[in-house]
C-alpha cells in the first residue's frame, strides 16, 4: 500500500470538543485510507465515542475540519453521513426485528417501479447481489429477531454497501460473537478491504487488531497518542498497552523485594484421622 495523499478517503484535522471545562477531544488528526483497515483503540473515556459522534453530526465539533474525498463536509446526523458514504455498524444494533432482511436493507429507501409501486422483485435481486458480494447466502424473508447477532451485523454491512459507502466504521463488532463468528466477520472485512473500502475497527481486543489491522491508532485522554503501521513497524501488544495507559506494564506491576521477618507460626508433622 502506498502512503500517498490520494489514498486518503477521510481526513480529520484538528478536531476538538469541550463539554464545560472538560476537553474531551484535543486537536485530533486522523486519516483513513482506501483499501486499509485501521484499528482504533483507547481506554474507556479516551474520546473514541465523542470523535465518532462529531464525525456523524450527533455532536458539533468546536474546532477542526473533516474532509471526505478531498471535500470538506459536516453532517447533520448519521442518516446524512450514510447517504454521503460513511456508515457505522454499532455494537448495539438498531434494527426492526419484526421485519425481514429485505425490509431492513431498504427501510426508508424503497425502490419503486414506473407505476410508483414498491419494486419488490428489484429489492430481492439487489439484496441477493449484496450478500453474494459478501460471500454469503441469506434467507431474505427471515425475520431479524430469529437471526444471530453476527448475521444481523452482516445485514448492516450489506446496507452500507448498498449505499456505496466509502468508509465503514465497526464499533466493537466482536464483543458478543463466538470465535467462529469472528473468523467469518474477518473474512467479510478483508473482502471489503479488497474492494477498496476504508475500514475503522474499534476494539479493546488487541489480538484482533494485530491480526486484521493494517494500522493501529491510539487515543488517550482526548489526545491522539500515535498511529503505527503494523506491516512496516515492529509493534507489540505491550507497545499498544503502553500507548493506551501512558506507561509500561513493568511500571504498572513493579517487582518488589521483602526481607523475611521473625517466625510467627510453625506447623510440623500435622495429621488428621477420620473419627
3D architecture notes:
- With 275 residues, the chain is of the alpha/beta class.
- Helix content is 31%, strand content 24%.
- The chain has 9 helices and 10 strands.
- It has helices spanning 48-55, 78-83, 101-106, 120-133, 149-162, 179-194, 206-212, 237-245, 249-252; strands spanning 8-19, 22-33, 36-41, 63-68, 71-73, 86-89, 167-171, 198-202, 215-220, 223-229.
- The strands form 2 sheets. The chain has a 6-stranded mixed β-sheet with strand order 6-7-8-3-9-10. Strands 2-1-4-5 form a 4-stranded antiparallel β-sheet, with helices on one face.
- β7 (167-171), α6 and β8 (198-202) form a beta-alpha-beta unit.
- α4 packs across α5 (149-162).
- The longest helix is centred in the C-terminal third of the chain and has 16 residues, at 179-194.
- The chain starts with 7 loop residues before the first strand and ends in a 23-residue tail after the last helix.
- The mean pLDDT is 89.
Amino acid at each position: 500500500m502506498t502512503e500517498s495523499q490520494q489514498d486518503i478517503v477521510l481526513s480529520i484535522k484538528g478536531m476538538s470538543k469541550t463539554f464545560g471545562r472538560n476537553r474531551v477531544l484535543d486537536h485530533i488528526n486522523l486519516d483513513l485510507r482506501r483499501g486499509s483497515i485501521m484499528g482504533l483503540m483507547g481506554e474507556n473515556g479516551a474520546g473514541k465515542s465523542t470523535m465518532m459522534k462529531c464525525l456523524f453530526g450527533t455532536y458539533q465539533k468546536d474546532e477542526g475540519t473533516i474532509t471526505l474525498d478531498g471535500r470538506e463536509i459536516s453532517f447533520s446526523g448519521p442518516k446524512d453521513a450514510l447517504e454521503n458514504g460513511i456508515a457505522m455498524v454499532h455494537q448495539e444494533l438498531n434494527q426492526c426485528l419484526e421485519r425481514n432482511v429485505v425490509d431492513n436493507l431498504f427501510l426508508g429507501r424503497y425502490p419503486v417501479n414506473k407505476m410508483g409501486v414498491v419494486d419488490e422483485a428489484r429489492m430481492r435481486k439487489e439484496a441477493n447481489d449484496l450478500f453474494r458480494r459478501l460471500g454469503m447466502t441469506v434467507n431474505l424473508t427471515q425475520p431479524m429477531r430469529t437471526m444471530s447477532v453476527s448475521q444481523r451485523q452482516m445485514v448492516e454491512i450489506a446496507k452500507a454497501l448498498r449505499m456505496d459507502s466509502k468508509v465503514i466504521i465497526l464499533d466493537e463488532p466482536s464483543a458478543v460473537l463466538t470465535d467462529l463468528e469472528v473468523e467469518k466477520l474477518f473474512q467479510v472485512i478483508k473482502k471489503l478491504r479488497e474492494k477498496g473500502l476504508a475500514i475503522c475497527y474499534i476494539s479493546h481486543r488487541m489480538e484482533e487488531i494485530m491480526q486484521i489491522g493494517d494500522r493501529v491508532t491510539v487515543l488517550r485522554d482526548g489526545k491522539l497518542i500515535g498511529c503505527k503501521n503494523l506491516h512496516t513497524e515492529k509493534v507489540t501488544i505491550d507497545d499498544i498497552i503502553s500507548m493506551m495507559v501512558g506507561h509500561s506494564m513493568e511500571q504498572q506491576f513493579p517487582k518488589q523485594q521483602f526481607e523475611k521477618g521473625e517466625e510467627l507460626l510453625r506447623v510440623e508433622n500435622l495429621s488428621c484421622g477420620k473419627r
